[in-house]
Amino acid sequence: MLRRWFCCFSGELEAKPRSNKGHDYPWEAYTLRELVHATNNFHEKNKLGEGGFGTVYFGQTSKGEEIAVKRLKAMTAKTEMEFAIEVEILGRVRHKNLLSLKGFYAGGDERLIVYDYMPNLSLISHLHGRRAADLLLDWPRRMKIAIGAAEGLVYLHHEASPHIIHRDIKASNVLLDADFNAKVADFGFAKLVPEGVSHLTTRVKGTLGYLAPEYAMWGKVSEACDVYSFGVLLLEIVSARKPIEKLPGGVKREIVNWVTPLVERGRWEHVADPRLGDKFDKAQLRNVVMVALRCTNGRPENRPPMLEVVELLKSGVREGRTKEVVVMKKEMREDDDDGWRD
Questions:
Q1: What is the distance between the alpha carbons of residues 71 and 64, in angstroms, rounded to a whole number?
Q2: For ATP, which residues are the binding ones (predicted)?
């Protein structure tokens, strides 16, 4: 239904913008002129990021709204399909931890998708990119982002109808708003799962380092593939290491293979991002790493569903806070005792 709607609209290159809010569709249809003006003609200085699917630009509308505009690459049948999938799925989902569709433009050779602007950009920019040196991601923020992204996946896997498999969970697809709330984004590779279907066999899409083995080798995709990718993302969040590292001699090592021997030897402190120093909760770190290793189990049937992942992460944070309060109270009692003895 949605795909037919915007294909019909796509012939209207300069149609007047019309709001669909309150009607069948909760987004706006922008004009090309408006988005060109908002992004300063897609100027290089407005570029926020670039991927295989397209380039994202910062924009400001005539009303003063800050937006992000994804401009798809040269039009092909593949690009058209990915645009249709992303717009259709974004039109379906509404959750605090998913990036919502604000509007789009489809006309001629241009396909543009409009979102709310995320002031803190993507998770990857804080772990490996231009904002990494600022160390804005302290330990509590990392846990908040991990739980938020997990809750977004819970909605896709368990609450959306039909269920949705994202297929490209990675650090660059987790955006951060002004309060560092996680927003899972980029649904160009997503799959809708019919009721009663446990898995699909499809062409492999996604990013090396995050792909579940059964998906990378045989194209078998299920919710468990997203769980695997999320496990890799968890390790990346706590360690700030990339999913695949290049070692001397051209050898490549995946993050799971790096962390496993450290866990076996009990060297938990070596897993944490060195930039954090000792400013992280050791019990929470253990919990997150163990959850990540369960998520990246080689057998998909042994991976926990995202509902369980969220509960495990939240319980780890709760226990960490409880221990923190106990320690603080103990220290306060000791201080009082010292004062009394004086």
A1: 20
A2: 70
